[in-house]
Amino acid sequence: MTNKITKVLIANRGEIALRVIRGCRELGIQSVAVYSEADKDSLHVRHADEAICIGPPESSKSYLSIDNIIKAAKEMKADAIHPGYGFLSENPLFAEACEQNKIIFIGPSADAMRAIGNKTSAREIMMAANVPIAPGKNDVDRNNTDEILKEIERIGVPVLVKASAGGGGRGIRIINTLDEALETIEIAAAEAASAFGDATIFLEKFVSNARHIEIQIMADAHGNVIAFGERDCSIQRRHQKLIEEAPSPAVNEQLREAISDAAIKAAKSCNYQNAGTVEFLLDEASGEFYFLEVNARLQVEHPVTELVYGIDLVKMQLKVALGQSLKDLYPNKPSPVGWAIECRINGEDPFNDFMPSLGLIGGLELPSGPGVRFDTMLFEGLDIPLFYDSLLGKLITWGSNREEAIARMNRALDELKIGGIQTNIPFHKELMNNKNFISGDFHTNWLEANFTMPDKPITGNNIELALIATSISLNTKTKQISSPNNTNNWAKAGRIHSMRRDFRSSGWQ
Amino acid sequence: MAIRRLTLNEINYSIAIKEDSNSLIATITNLETNEETSQIIDYYSSINGQKINLIINGSNVTIFVQHVDGKTVVTIDNILYVVESSESSKKRGSKGSSGDPEGIISAPLAGIVTKINVALGDIIEAGKTVCIVEAMKMQNEIKIPINGVITAIDFNESDRVEKNEIIIRYDVSE
Fold first, then answer.
1. CB contact under 8 A, B2 and A509
2. What is the CATH number of the domain that holds A149?
3. Both A92 and A158 in a single domain?
4. Rounded to whole angstroms, how far apart are CA atoms A321 and A79?
5. Closest Cα of chain B to A363: distance in Å?
6. Domain interval for residue A491
């Protein structure tokens, strides 16, 4: 079976849209960008071969509108759609709509998404396939309080109450004592009903001090499934990943093989196709690991896997969607080389409880040099739209070992300079120099329980530099306004003229 | 010689910059303590006044500068500082909800007003959330600092709001 793909519409925005466009271009496939009215000026729009507006800024009316995107794909004569991550990427209705309109959906089937999208049914499928799952209770009958209490006693507190329809760290509550169990379950069910439209909940043992380990898988249409090792995503804040790495400091070759086998079983048990990620919790003390969930899409953190396995997951996705066999695409046994780390660069203020920081990117200097990759939507002059998430880019470094990858990350974080908004770069600098991080000694609760961001420096060098720079800039500005050449038209025409007007050559007034 | 009065972190400074052949000499006086320091800048370049490169005491530094609403936003080593001209700083009161003067509640950051919890005439206790401003998927709960009676609501739910725009007005009550 071989499909034909000549033009791919990317149903996403930001850095991931750009990432997919790059893969298409390398394969000689045309790309179509979609954009909301807030994203006209975006980098992905400029990089794509073609672009089409799909609605107003609100995601619900643009990037989440199946109708608008399918309509755009037909209008632009795209024969395939890549969903990226987030938005519609794990929505079975979207995959179905593509199929109905004879558009190739680059991802798993709607059936596979449904089977693993519901957490309770995913647990049942994994149990049947002998994939280890955390002790728990699937069908919680909220009226049978005796049984609930018996089950909690059997599992042993602390116990998590999770929404069946939840995922991505949302809709979770913890029961620490039997007394609070029933009340917590009622609250969790009410929350699940309002957030996901489904009050079904299940119980799962809370594994404390666990690591978040996930396996990258790729599955073709011929029943072949490859596991490209693990990523460690244990550095999290409020269930949101901030730093990811591959391999994991806590996983040796034997354990890698065992978790990878479980992930392959998981993929096969639901006839999974294309790229996916199987998430596990690893109890480092016992070496036990438990299935958490399947992410039926390309992950944000896929580049760390690409760097240590020397692969291009986006191009592999496209080739698998074309019907090619993994036996031809990757005949060898995967084995990681070196170490890769990713820092998510977000528009958030680490000195102020990670509050969002928005605005105009007034300056940008990009990192480069050996082992450095920066996947980003940023450019000078971008006014970051309010409507979407705070991810601005992903800084990824590769080294021959973990130490070198960290040293390169430290250097790259120094080279990367973003002006005009507060980013979380100072947070990443702190982490790269943190003893626990350097020794690989952390788990999913470590950051929130043990790490404190130092205060923003408000004395010394930076203050003097800020005052000096402000003075120089204000003097420059005065100079330009009084310049006879600097008419409004010139001001509009923009930078070229003003860049040549080096302040130094015109001197002080 | 250019002399300016600037405010940073609520401290007033005076900055004098003197050009001296190939270098600049900056003299900074903290007007609260009268402490004075001087810095010799060996080299500097400025692109449009927005990107400034300095060599100072043998180290180089790149600084981004933007002028926004009469303030200057300076980014040094990925840390953001807001500098105000002392003359203009007096005119500007609030820096967001916590800094709002009595009687008004403004947006601490640009975003979407996703929820308004109060109606005209409501008597609201201090510390209650009156509205939520969402930016980048984060919900920022805006609270009333003192007891008040709501007298005006300038926004509807799902309206876009700019930083420091007044969302709600109230009369102080007992």
1. yes
2. 3.30.1490.20
3. no
4. 11
5. 6
6. 461-506
Looking at the structure, tell me whether residues A270 and A396 fall in a common domain: yes
Q: What is the pTM of this model?
A: 0.84
Same domain, A86 and A220: no
Q: What would the pLDDT profile of B59-81 be if each residue is shown by its tens digit? A: 899 999 999 878 899 999 999 99
Overall number of domains in chain A: 4
Domain boundary among A170, A185, A205: A205
Are residues A446 and A357 located together in one domain of the fold?
A: yes
- Per-residue b or e along A307-319, where b marks 16 or more CB atoms closer than 10 Å to that residue's CB: bbbebbbbbbbbb
B47–A466 C-beta distance less than 8 A: no
A498 contacts B48? CB cut-off 8 A: yes
Residue B25, both tokens: 């000499």
Residue A98 lies in a domain: yes
A493 in reach of chain B (CB within 8 A): no
Q: Is residue A436 domain-shared with residue A416, that is, in the same domain?
A: yes
* Burial class, A470, CB count within 10 angstroms (exposed 0-12 / middle 13-18 / buried 19+): buried
| CATH code where residue A52 lies | 3.40.50.20
**CB–CB of A290/A280 below 8 Å?**
yes
For residues A263 and A201, membership in a common domain is answered with no
Write down all domains in chain B, each with its CATH number in brackets.
Answer: 2-89 (3.30.700.30), 97-172 (2.40.50.100)
d(CA A290, CA A279): 9
Instruction: Please list every residue in chain A whose beta carbon sits closer than 8 Å to the beta carbon of residue B15.
Output: 467-468, 470-471
Q: Which of B48, B74, B78 sits opposite A426 (nearest CB)?
A: B78
* Amino acid identity, position B71: K
Which positions 270-299 of A are in contact with B (Cβ < 8 Å)?
none
Nearest-Cα residue of chain B relative to residue A474: B49
Q: Number of helices (H) and strands (E), helices first, in chain B?
A: 1, 16
Q: Please state the ipTM of this predicted complex.
A: 0.85
Tens digit of pLDDT at every position of chain A (509 positions): 457 899 999 999 999 999 999 999 999 999 999 999 999 999 999 999 999 999 999 999 999 999 999 999 999 999 999 999 999 999 999 999 999 999 999 999 999 999 998 888 899 999 999 999 999 988 888 889 999 999 999 999 999 999 888 766 677 889 999 999 999 999 888 888 888 888 889 999 998 889 999 999 999 999 999 999 999 999 999 889 999 999 999 999 999 999 999 999 999 999 999 999 999 999 998 899 999 999 999 999 999 999 999 999 999 999 999 999 999 999 999 999 999 999 999 999 999 999 888 789 999 999 999 999 999 999 999 999 988 989 999 999 999 999 999 999 999 999 999 999 999 999 999 999 999 999 999 999 999 999 999 999 888 889 999 999 999 998 886 554 433 443 444 433 333 333 333 333 333 33
Calculate ∠ Cα A316-A317-A322, nearest 5°: 95
* Closest to A288 measured CA to CA, from A255, A311, A318, A257: A255
For residue A161, report the phi and psi dihedrals to the nearest 5 degrees: -105, 120
SS3 A264: helix
CA distance B169 to A17: 42
E strand segments, B57-128: 59-68, 71-76, 79-85, 104-106, 111-116, 123-124
